[in-house]
Automatic annotation (TrEMBL):
GO terms for cellular component: 6-phosphofructokinase complex; membrane. It holds the Pfam family PFK. This is 6-phosphofructokinase. The keyword Protein biosynthesis does not apply. PANTHER family: ATP-DEPENDENT 6-PHOSPHOFRUCTOKINASE, PLATELET TYPE, PHOSPHOFRUCTOKINASE. Its cofactor is Mg(2+). Its EC number is 2.7.1.11. Keywords: Allosteric enzyme, ATP-binding, Cytoplasm, Glycolysis, Kinase, Magnesium, Membrane, Metal-binding, Nucleotide-binding, Transferase, Transmembrane, Transmembrane helix. Belongs to the phosphofructokinase type A (PFKA) family. ATP-dependent PFK group I subfamily. Eukaryotic two domain clade "E" sub-subfamily. It is an enzyme of class 2 (transferase). It comes from Sphaeramia orbicularis (orbiculate cardinalfish). Pathway: Carbohydrate degradation; glycolysis; D-glyceraldehyde 3-phosphate and glycerone phosphate from D-glucose: step 3/4.
Length: 749
């Protein structure tokens, strides 16, 4: 929430508005006085890394009454406030809309009471409302992700990863209860992210007899050599008859039926606290800026809107349409229309069947064998989330009836015959593992001349090397019929430089590593004299990590190859930072992409800032290096990898059937060699040959990159005077049509 507050304040000041904090939510609005204070640029400094909300939040019974809203209206009119940006859940946003609808009547009543002058009714005739959804449950219809959800997932996954080590040591079963009284998003996504054995959520109660099925699944898992079981339970989980399914009930069931040593862990409010993730900081910053733009464009006839995220794009939706649909979900659940409730949730309808496939081995036993062989290999540098993608591909492939093969060490291993069949249990526990367990090499297909292979199709996951390899394989089809098999690439690279996709597996984990490190580096200067840190990030020639990491960490500047700079720009940045240091901030942060400029190196920039900042600040430099590639994958990367690989494998199954003729697979069309990428709002299969013109092969980056539009936002929030392109800002849409059929991944940024 603090990132959203910061963005609203600074964007508001940037456009010339007077911005106020209302402390303690609606209670502060009703009480007035010191609860409503004017905000300054400096008052939102050093907020990004702080969890919760620094302006406070409180439930207010008085605001639910007409008298309470009358007091609130008086407090706003006295300060000339006619625009409200509300960050909260559906209850808070519904209250804001009611306040807006009553506004003119409240002012008339205040005039009759003599509390305000008659001309104030005309002067403050309309109250404009824009909402941003802050809820860790992700229970608001109309947006893919709400502010706080990703951070809550981080807390859950951190706990699960820690528990899995002790559970494995002692051969225990753990039942974890997560938040979600009416929404099972946290439970479902964390189950997918950690590879849980069973998940229970309120929207999809299990069928009668679920107890026996669950125990069979747990027993089967143990019989295959697994030393632990993980069961995720949402706090609002119920059965088909509305009876609560508690974590203690599940524990007693496992102990009684199986005799397993079982423990319960209730995460509770741990999920609400802690440092916000990079995803949440960027999401909140984008939403905050979009909210200010929406307020600027609103009129008396414009309905109150909520700023939402669909795929990778900001959208504006009528607030009450979203609220009504959210309430319809609860109504459907209360009336035991659970399938309808899942459909109304949107992405749940697509995620839940996938969770059944990935978590339930029994499904693959019942599926008829296809007699197709499918190989999976990693190409290029390792990226966190690769293993989750491989696990998903293997298990979905097995559930489709295919025989799955794993290729070790990329094309080098393919050439040397390092290919072996991979079974369901072989990929158990892979989701939380960093790096590439299959092994990976940077070599492309051309490096190793391959003529024959044991697979009817290939699925590749990695960076630009995989893209180049697919182009080479496509060309070689004309000479070798053995290469006429369906092939698909899933983008996986920390650099996020794959053409045809806004996002890549591994980039979010790298962003979190950068953000966390920057937080610690800035904290190291706390209480000391003014200091500026120069930090070098990875990315090759792609400035994604430096730019988006800079936005998440609150950087003052980020130097990248895509935006050329010279000595005059460097000098202007130094002067700007010097001025800020003299008046307000104590710490500065400057990021530089490793290949941003061959002459203006990290050492050069460090020496320049050191020399020019003498007497005002001193400098330190840090090269983050390969720590950006390591570590456990973030929840986002685990789930993005899981979902995109599942979709890729389903596409492969379809293509295998389409291209099977006269006892063999023969695929030689362009659309049988594709890259599956995230494009704005949808996951799209794109023939690699069509992406050649979109690629700068010399610098290994796409010619157009969506995130460059975020750079002015970073500069505005760092107090630079710059223009902001509003051409890509969200337009008011309707909640029923904001989700294309192809969209089946809860992804953003």
């Amino acid at each position: 929430m603090n990132a959203a507050v910061r963005a609203v304040v600074r964007m508001g000041l940037y456009v010339g508005a007077k911005v106020y904090f209302i402390h303690e939510g609606y209670q502060g609005m009703v009480d007035g006085g010191e609860n409503i204070r004017e905000a300054t640029w400096e008052s939102v400094s050093s907020m990004l890394q702080v969890g919760g909300t620094v302006i406070g939040s409180a439930r207010c019974k008085e605001f639910r009454t007409h008298e309470g809203r009358l007091k609130a209206a008086l407090n706003l009119v006295q300060r000339g406030i006619t625009n409200l940006c509300v960050i909260g859940g559906d209850g808070s946003l519904t209250g804001a809309n009611l306040f807006r609808e009553e506004w003119s009547g409240l002012l008339t009543e205040l005039v009759e009471q003599g509390s305000i002058e008659a001309d104030a009714v005309q002067k403050y005739s309309a109250l404009h409302i824009v909402g941003m959804v802050g809820s860790i449950d992700n229970d608001f219809c109309g947006t893919d992700m709400t502010i706080g959800t990703d951070s809550a997932l981080h807390r859950i996954i951190e706990v699960v990863d820690a528990i899995m080590t002790t559970a494995q040591s002692h051969q225990r079963t753990f039942v974890l209860e997560v938040m979600g009284r009416h929404c099972g998003y946290l439970a479902l996504v964390s189950a997918l992210a950690c590879g849980a054995d069973w998940v229970l959520i309120p929207e999809m109660p299990p069928e009668d007899g679920w107890e026996d099925k669950m125990c069979q699944k747990l027993s089967a898992t143990r019989s295959r050599g697994t030393r632990l079981n993980i069961i995720i339970v949402a706090e609002g989980a119920i059965d088909r008859h509305g009876k609560p399914i508690t974590s203690s009930l599940v524990k007693d069931l496992v102990v009684k039926c199986l005799g397993f040593d079982t423990r319960v862990t209730i995460l509770g409010h741990v999920q609400r606290g802690g440092t916000p993730s990079a995803f949440d900081r960027i999401l909140a910053s984008r939403m905050g800026v979009e909210a200010v733009l929406a307020l600027l464009e609103t009129t008396a006839n414009t309905p109150a809107c909520v700023v939402s995220l669909c795929g990778n794009q900001s959208v504006r939706l009528p607030l009450m349409e979203c609220v009504q649909m959210t309430q319809e979900v609860q109504k459907a659940m209360d009336e035991k229309r659970f399938e309808e409730a899942v459909k109304l949730r949107g992405l749940f309808a697509l995620m839940f069947p996938m969770s059944l496939v990935l978590l339930t081995f029994l499904l693959c036993i019942l599926h008829p064998q296809s007699n197709f062989n499918v190989a999976v290999l990693n190409v290029g540098a390792p990226a966190a989330g690769m293993n989750a993608a491989v696990r998903s591909a293997v298990r979905v492939g097995i559930s489709e009836g295919h025989k799955m093969f794993a290729v070790n060490d990329g094309f080098e291993g393919f050439c040397k015959g390092q290919i072996k069949e991979i079974k369901w249990a072989d990929v158990g526990g892979w989701t939380g593992q960093g790096g590439s367990l299959l092994g990976t090499k940077r070599y492309t297909f051309n490096t190793y001349f391959i003529i024959s292979n044991p697979a009817d199709t290939k699925a590749l996951g990695s960076a630009l090397q995989a893209f180049l390899s697919l182009l080479e394989l496509l060309t070689a089809r004309g000479k070798y019929d053995e290469l006429c098999v369906p092939m698909v690439m899933v983008p996986a690279t920390v650099s996020n430089n794959v053409p045809g996709s806004d996002l890549s597996i591994g980039a979010d984990t790298a962003l979190n590593a950068i953000t966390t490190t920057c937080d610690r580096i800035k904290q190291s200067a706390s209480g000391t004299k003014r200091r500026v840190f120069i930090i070098e990030t990875m990315g090759g020639y792609c400035g994604y990590l430096a730019s988006v990491g800079g936005l998440a960490a609150g950087a003052d500047a980020a130097y990248i190859y895509e935006e050329p700079f010279d000595i005059r720009d460097l000098q202007a940045n130094v002067e700007h930072l010097t001025e800020k240091m003299k008046t307000s901030i104590q710490r500065g942060l400057v990021l530089r992409n490793e290949n941003s400029n061959e002459n203006y190196t990290t050492d050069f920039i460090y020496q320049l800032y050191t020399e020019e900042g003498k007497g005002v600040f001193d400098c330190r430099k840090n090269v983050l290096g390969h720590m950006q590639q390591g570590g456990a994958p973030s929840p986002f990367d685990r789930n993005f990898g899981t979902k995109i690989s599942a979709k890729a494998m389903q596409w492969i199954s379809k293509k295998l059937v389409e291209t099977f003729r006269q006892g063999r697979v023969f695929a030689n069309t362009e659309d049988s060699c594709c890259l599956l990428g995230m494009r704005r709002r949808a996951l799209v299969f794109q023939p690699v040959v069509q992406l050649k013109d979109e690629t700068d092969f010399v610098h290994r980056i796409p010619k157009e990159q969506w995130w460059l539009k975020l750079r002015p936002l970073m500069k505005i929030l760092a107090k630079y005077k710059t223009s902001y392109d509003v051409s890509d800002s969200g337009q008011l849409e309707h909640v029923m049509r904001n989700r294309p059929k192809e969209l089946d991944a809860s992804v953003a940024m």
